[in-house]
Amino acid sequence: MSNVTNILKIKEAFLALPNKKVLEMHKVAFGQYANRAKKVQFTTKGPSRKQAIIPVHNNLVESIMGNTSTHIFQINALLKNVKSLMHSEFIYPCSGGITIVTNNVPNPSNLSIKIFQVS
Q1: Which of 18, 44, 47, 116 is the most buried (most CB within 10 A)?
Q2: Angle subtended at Cα 100 by Cα 99 and Cα 103, rounded to the nearest 5 degrees
């Protein structure tokens, strides 16, 4: 249909409406806003890929968590020694081990570094 036909149909449906309002309704119904795709806005919660999950026996998790600042320092020093741009930000316990949160997604060479020595 042409614009004129659409405007006339709106005017027929709303006889008491002033012409200015009819034109505004036409713009909304058939103009620049009519075919605009709706953008879905949402976020999802899930595990971050910027982390390394390390399986550790439950008895050792407490001793590791008792000295996290030292472990973060040691991890960052090891990563710096292998000239990695990644660094650890913090450590927290998780089911069956610990999680080391990093500034980037770790690659296999970062994950192959031996961090903890258990005596």
Answers
A1: 116
A2: 135
